Amino acid sequence: MEYNNVHKEGLTLGVYNLKFGKEKMAIDVPDKNLLGVLRSREVPCAATEEEAVRKALADPIGSPCIDQKAKAGEKVCIVVCDLTRAWQHPSLYLPLLVDEVKKGGVRDEDIFFLVGTGTHRSHTPEEHKFLLGDQLYGRYRVFDHESKTAEMTDFGETSYGTPVRINKMAADADHVILTGGIVYHFMSGWGGGRKAVLPGISSYETVMANHALALNPPPGKGRNWVCRGGNVEGNLIHLDMVEAAEKLKPSFLLNVIMNAEGKIGWAVAGDWRKAHEAGRNLVDSVDAIAIPQLADLVVASACGYPKDINFYQSTKALFNAQDAARPGGAIVILASCVEGYGNQEVQTMLQKFKNSDEREAELRREFTIAKHVGYCAGQAAEQFDLHFVTDMDPRLLEGTGITISRTLDEALKKIYAVHGQELKTWLMPQGANTLPKLNS
To answer: 9 pLDDT exceeds 70?
Structure first.
């Protein structure tokens, strides 16, 4: 990674525009205080989404092409994302993948799709059609994984003590193909790859045991910080997921990576471990920015609508921004949040429980991703002077430690009154995407 350059994008020197909902807000930072503007790099990508996918399928990493592996008479299970990950554009890449599978002689009736819902809800027929697209829906069988009721195959335990129970339909198939998208994930390091298996098509008990690794084993010791965005070294959640996926022995992987326009800019295919590693490196080449020091003040946009549609989604920017701020420093998140919290469990964690100790106890009682998001957001409010510029009702965040403002100027006045005006500052116009990494 290279150090960022300070980008000058404003109308006048030192003025920068940051997205907020469907609008923009301007910030004027004196050059002497501005450490830099952290934004994703412009890396060449495919001319079209279809080109990116076809190129990956034609040149798989660490594996023969899928048509050389799946043969006539064999049953093929294709694990696909659920509706919450539809930004990956599965209806575009799945038909291209199926075309490659069929080149090996596999019949239509021997191909089926298994929606990796994890612990999420099941889908309607209309939602299945949206995920698969007109070319595939109605032609192939599609099933939802149901973490609490689906028939499971027992694969024993991982070395971390996680019971591995995986959807029997996938376990009984001759070939399992994993699909998905690779982005930073605040617990497992990155999305995609092994996550199609765990949590995607694993039992509720398997998912909960895996996710509980996000906390240090002794009660009261809080978050396990190796389980964080952009890190797989020693990341217990990631390593546990890999062990679980290994037991299923997936035959192939196709993962996509989105560009700044929200389209498929790159794709990786092949061996489920090697291709995913290549995809992680690609994401880093675009979105990981090395920084030489932590700042007194970080101002980050959650990337505007729809990424800042609610508080739950906007925490992606918060979790990235805190990696650029010194302990006790100030963080400002620009997030309209027109739909409020966007998740009842996040709201309950922040409003009902008053500190990290209480939230940790609730999280250990019953772990969910949403509760963990609430726990981490509350912890950030304790460790930093945390401000949200938002359209949310201020009463919704009373007692959470998060200071609410309606404008960026209002938030900065509050911060300067406490910390003074000579604050070394990082700006993050793409806060939900860009991951700062302190150069040790």
So the answer is: no
